């Protein structure tokens, strides 16, 4: 039982919660709550921390392959990112994907990719992962200046999709987009100045959607790489849509067309 | 110039930020940031608070009909809900709508309504308002136990739609749904057990979508009132969608059909 917040392991966990660099140096991230913990692939679970109270109630639901470490409620509150923690937290090995992995995943030219340009809001990124899985997206590509996928708020909002959705951060988005095009993937930029409405295009073949930053949209040089600019028609005085909402509308239009 | 955080007006503003009851007693709410302040309808602006620095830079963008009150940066940080406040905050009169107002707004049986059952997340509610305006929704109905629309986080996420989208909190959602049906509005429940996919229904006539709580979905008695249960087909292991995302997909399917 770990009883002190000055325990070395506890200090390390706090660093993993707070710091991107600490997570990437160790190649791990943190997952909280039983619902998420149960979705961790067996070979990815590195360590498990629980309170005694949690363990007594939920012992049967815990993964069987890693022995949990007990911590006091005070220590648990200290390492938890959530305000009212359940009492279970896992250290999980990061998944490493390459662009090649992602391009292999889409079979018969049926890729559906999201390309995120400088996305900044953790909740948006998590929601995009969650929605992408449901829509049949085959991979997510992020510019290296996007918010860190392993940020605890992002992880929570993915609702488990983090364990299943391939993704890759790339150095230069414009180069990557050219690679997609070389793979016969049609690249669409969600853009306020798009000529065609999004539902006037066909997404039955390999498709990638470029989604921009929350405040500024797509960078010009990124938007310029797209094959086609599409817009989501808007009524009223609305100037734009939330980035996760815009991405969701596009993904589910592709899913709708592909179901027919 | 107000220089002290113990000033009576300042104390009142803090109460308005924090307390639903204080806002409803006075019939006002708070708006922060120049982008939102510029969208306040002229007759709704009650009071304006600025820092000197903000005023010097943005004087020309401020509404002309209410004289701003100056506060020191320290006092401004104290009354602001945001962590890095811009230096402008407005007290705004609440809009009062009735169900009759909302039903009048949809012309020629083209209502598009959202009915929110115990929605709890402020960001979700704000995003729903923002998206609803863009999709052509004519009004939003909320169960009285939903999150308060005048919560500062909700207001921010609406991106101004709060000033334009009619809404009403109702005592008993099931009674209200019966009223909608009496107005020939087709009521669809977004439900995991829906038989038809959402894109297999026609939304050209009066349409209302029932959207449930983030964790628990629709209450059984509310779902039972719907004419039709519809589902959003999901791939992978995704168990559900974020409430704002689900609502967005439905609203934009109706918008898509209505554009044809």
From TrEMBL, chains A, B:
Residue ranges that the Swiss-Prot or TrEMBL entry lists as coiled coil: none
Methyltransferase among the record's keywords? Answer: yes
Q: Does the keyword Transferase apply?
A: yes
Q: Where is the RNA 2-O ribose methyltransferase substrate binding domain?
A: 30-98
Under the heading InterPro entries, the entry gives: Alpha/beta_knot_MTases, MRM3-like_sub_bind, Ribosomal_eL30-like_sf, rRNA_Methyltransferase, rRNA_MeTrfase_TrmH, SpoU_MeTrfase, SpoU_subst-bd, tRNA_m1G_MTases_N
The record's Pfam families line, in alphabetical order, gives: MRM3-like_sub_bind, SpoU_methylase
Keyword list (alphabetical) reads:
Methyltransferase, Transferase
The record ties this protein, via SMART domains, to:
SpoU_sub_bind
Q: Which domain of life is it from?
A: Bacteria
Query: Membrane spanning segments where?
Result: none
Family membership = Belongs to the class IV-like SAM-binding methyltransferase superfamily. RNA methyltransferase TrmH family.
Q: Which NCBIfam families match?
A: rRNA_methyl_3 (TIGR00186)
| Protein name (database record) | 23S rRNA (Guanosine(2251)-2'-O)-methyltransferase RlmB
Q: Which species is this UniProt entry from?
A: Ruminococcus hominis
């Amino acid at each position: 039982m770990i009883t002190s917040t000055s325990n070395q392991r506890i200090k390390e966990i706090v660093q993993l919660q707070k710091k991107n660099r600490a997570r990437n140096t160790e190649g791990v991230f943190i997952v909280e709550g039983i619902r998420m913990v149960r979705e961790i692939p067996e070979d990815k679970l590195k360590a498990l921390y629980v309170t005694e109270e949690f363990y007594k109630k939920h012992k049967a639901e815990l993964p069987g392959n890693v022995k949990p470490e007990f911590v006091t409620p005070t220590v648990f509150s200290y390492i938890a990112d959530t305000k009212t923690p359940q009492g279970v937290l896992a250290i999980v090995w990061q998944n490493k994907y390459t662009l090649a992995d992602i391009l292999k995943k889409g079979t018969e030219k049926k890729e559906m990719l999201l390309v995120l340009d400088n996305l900044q809001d953790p909740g948006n990124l998590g929601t995009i992962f969650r929605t992408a899985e449901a829509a049949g997206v085959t991979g997510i590509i992020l510019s290296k200046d996007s918010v860190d996928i392993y940020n605890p708020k992002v992880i929570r909002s993915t609702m488990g999709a983090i364990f299943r959705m391939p993704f890759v951060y790339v150095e230069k988005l414009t180069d990557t987009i050219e690679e997609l095009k070389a793979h016969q993937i049609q690249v669409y930029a969600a853009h306020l100045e798009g000529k065609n409405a999004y539902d006037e295009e066909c997404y039955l073949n390999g498709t990638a959607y470029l989604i921009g930053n929350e405040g500024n949209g797509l960078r010009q040089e990124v938007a310029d790489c797209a094959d086609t600019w599409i817009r989501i028609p808007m009524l009223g005085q609305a100037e734009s849509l939330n980035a996760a909402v815009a991405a969701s509308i596009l993904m589910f239009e592709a899913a709708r067309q592909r179901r027919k």
